[in-house]
Specification:
The complex is a heterodimer. Chain A is built from 10 helices and 10 strands. By secondary structure, chain A is an alpha/beta fold. The radius of gyration of chain A is 18 Å and the shape is globular. Chain B has one domain. Helices cover about 70% and strands about 0% of the residues of chain B. In chain B, strands 1-2 form a two-stranded antiparallel ribbon.
Chain lengths: ~240, ~475
């Protein structure tokens, strides 16, 4: 579903991403770990065609992202680290707008409220202006947009950063439920605990290169992820 | 459908963040104030013109018995009608005067302060509805739209929106629609008030034409503001931050609203120089004398006018020949001068491709009936009336005074002769005439709109999401 082939991104002489190969299938939760500047967010941005690759290619559902930037986005939902919504609109109005953009048709209020409830926002919160929302609440609205979109793949950039443990656990549950329905998930994170709890596959990146891959929940659970991560960072 | 959502959301946000009320409210207040002032001025000027024209003709008719040439020297006055739409754009009218003296022998000076100042005068603005829309309209678009893309990019909303698979062009169209709707909410009610004022201010026979002119005038401004809608969105899409966007846009606004009109005015006069008033009068006087000499030489064997060589029994004929010989000279000199001013104006209109204010200013005045084309038409009509008066008076002299020989000057015409001169009854041309004369500036505005839309589309497709 999400595929990178020899994906490279250079900024002048600096190589942000070096010949990355990834193949993430439906049902996978792939966690990309790495220090700041390792190339995790660059990878996500390349999948979204927010930046152009210097070499290699990116495909979503078998379609080249660079050649079909709009069409390939129909199949993915993206959740950034910092979700921003229109502060002068309520949570429900934001959801109506963004879900409408994603689907091409307007969802009825009842369905919007259902989505809000699904992500843990009650009706009172739904009608409040987003300027009064916490980071977690804004993220929930955006997750509701992703659910409404019924995307085949999720691209998540540090999604649990700044969330309290309860919210992070809820978020992990949501990801697992999505993967169970066949959605491919690519998430970047610094949170080793979150990765170990959620991922079915893990990749560790360093200076733009994928230096370690763990495949399968059993291997991940049986690995001391923290030691492995630190070992690569110190090497 | 998608466009409506984007437009509706943008519009709602603009309503809630207060920009529309604050910036828009201020502009609407200014517009209504300018309209009220324009209305009062137009009504006052129109009433004065009608009264003065009637009084002047009454004075003409009530002359006592006198020599027709004395009456020709008294002449009449042509008062330029104040068109109904001058309440929204007074154009060049405040700078050129409104009265022409239809006197014997001479085509009166056009009431310009200086012969070379025709288009230069147009660079001065006054607080009219037209001026507000030309100068403050783009500023309003900038205030409402500078952060449409740049602000969302800074906040991160743009990348979220684009990640949903929305086509950048649809996003542009939705934002353009929202911006246009915001302007419409402010300006359509003001336009309705203006239409009521124009309909009420126009005479019965000219009401339909005045409203058609107002509709064309409004269309021109819609195109003009549309250019800025796309320009603002394009710059916003190209700018990394809102601060950059507003800085660039304000620089463009200052350039087009303040600096460019003055620079282009000077440039147009350099490319198509017009004579000074002194030069014009010297050249005109010299040719008048040459032509007059030829006529007198040919018909009376002398160049000494009104001398002993020509008997009084021929003074009526001499007057008529002398006047009629001068008509083509006036036509040639004034025609050349006016053509030069129109060439200067043409330069400014073409410059509207880059500086739309120059094109809309010309179009606005044209539709309001306060541009140079309308003034030229009025002046030409007044001159024709003058010639008619002269010809009627001279003809009467030929028939009644010349046969008296040495007693030529004892002849006194009765008021019946004065009544043969019709009143000066000038009507502004219709909207079709005005549109024909402003076709170039309207075409320039439309091309400008297409160019601005193309620029915005290019900038939006190429914009960075991050």
């Amino acid at each position: 579903m999400l595929r990178a082939i020899g994906l490279t991104k250079q900024y002048g002489s600096h190589t942000a991403l070096d010949r990355l190969d990834l193949d993430i299938r439906g049902g996978d939760i792939y966690c990309l770990l790495g220090a700041n500047g390792a190339g995790k967010t660059t990878t996500i941005n390349l999948f979204l065609n927010f930046i152009a690759p210097t070499g290699g290619s990116v495909e979503i559902n078998g379609v080249d992202v660079t050649r079909h930037p709009v069409a390939t986005k129909q199949d993915v939902a993206y959740i950034p680290e910092q979700v921003t919504l229109y502060g002068t609109l309520s949570g429900l109005e934001n959801l109506r707008f963004f879900a409408g953009l994603a689907l091409g048709h307007e969802l009825p209020r009842s369905r919007l409220l259902e989505l809000m409830t699904e992500v843990g926002l009650d009706h009172a919160a739904a009608d409040k202006r987003v300027s009064a929302y916490s980071k977690g609440m804004r993220q929930k609205v955006w997750i509701a947009v992703a659910i409404a979109k019924e995307a085949k793949a999720l691209l998540l950039d540090e999604p649990t950063s700044g969330l309290d443990p309860h919210a992070a656990a809820e978020f992990s549950d949501l990801l697992r439920r999505a993967a169970d329905t066949g959605v491919a998930v690519l998430t970047t994170t610094h949170d080793l605990f979150h990765a170990q709890q959620t991922a079915t596959r893990v990749g560790i990146m360093k200076r733009g290169r994928l230096v370690e891959s763990l495949d399968g929940e059993a291997q991940i659970v049986n690995t001391d992820l923290q030691s492995l991560y630190l070992q690569h960072m110190r090497a | 459908m998608l466009l409506n959502w984007i437009a509706r959301r943008e519009f709602l946000e603009r309503l809630r963040d207060g920009r529309l009320y604050l910036a828009g409210g201020l502009v609407v207040m200014l517009l209504l104030t300018a309209l009220a002032v324009g209305w009062a001025h137009q009504q006052g000027a129109h009433a004065e013109q009608v009264a003065a024209q009637a009084m002047d003709y009454r004075d003409w008719l009530h002359q006592d018995k006198r020599h027709p040439h004395d009456a020709a020297h008294q002449g009449m006055h042509a008062f330029k009608p104040e068109p109904p739409l001058s309440m929204v754009d007074s154009g060049i009218n405040p700078f050129i005067g409104s009265t022409v003296w239809l006197q014997a022998h001479r085509q009166s000076e056009v009431k310009f302060n200086a012969a070379q100042d025709a288009t230069g005068l147009q660079r001065f603005g006054n607080l009219s509805v037209g001026w507000i829309l030309q100068v403050l309209g783009p500023l309003l678009v900038i205030v409402l739209g500078f952060n449409a893309f740049a602000g969302e990019r800074e906040q991160g909303i743009l990348r979220q929106t684009l990640s949903l698979g929305v086509s950048p062009l649809r996003l542009l169209a939705g934002k353009a629609l929202a911006l246009a709707a915001s302007l419409a909410v402010l300006l359509v009610p003001a336009a309705i008030v203006a239409a009521i004022a124009v309909a009420a201010g126009a005479e019965h026979g000219e009401r339909i034409d005045a409203l058609l002119r107002l509709a064309a005038w409004g269309f021109g401004y819609a195109v003009y503001l549309g250019i800025f809608v796309f320009l603002v969105l394009g710059v916003s899409a190209m700018s990394a931050t809102s601060r950059t966007a507003i800085t660039v846009l304000l620089a463009l606004w200052i350039g087009q609203a303040v600096m460019a009109p003055r620079v282009l005015s000077e440039l147009s006069r350099t490319w198509f120089p017009s004579p000074t008033r002194l030069e014009f009068n010297q050249q005109l006087g010299a040719e008048l004398k040459t032509v007059s000499d030829q006529v007198w030489q040919k018909n009376f064997g002398t160049t000494e006018r009104w001398g002993r060589d020509v008997p009084l029994s021929k003074w009526g004929i001499a007057l008529r020949l002398d006047d009629q010989a001068s008509y083509p000279v006036y036509d040639r000199h004034y025609g050349r001068l006016w053509d030069t001013w129109e060439q200067q104006q043409t330069v400014q209109e073409w410059s509207g491709l880059v500086l739309p204010i120059l094109a809309i200013r010309s179009f606005s005045m044209g539709m309001a009936g306060t541009d140079f084309s309308h003034h030229r038409r009025f002046t030409t009509a007044a001159e024709l009336h003058r010639r008619n008066i002269q010809d009627l008076m001279s003809k009467d002299l030929v028939v009644h005074a010349d046969p008296l020989g040495d007693r030529h000057f004892s002849y006194q015409a009765t008021p019946d002769l004065w009544a043969t001169v019709p009143p000066f009854d000038y009507h502004s041309p219709g909207v079709g005439w005005a549109l024909w004369h402003q076709a170039r500036s309207l075409a320039v505005l439309c091309v400008g709109l297409l160019l601005a839309a193309a620029f915005a589309a290019f900038a939006t497709v190429r914009q960075r999401a991050l």
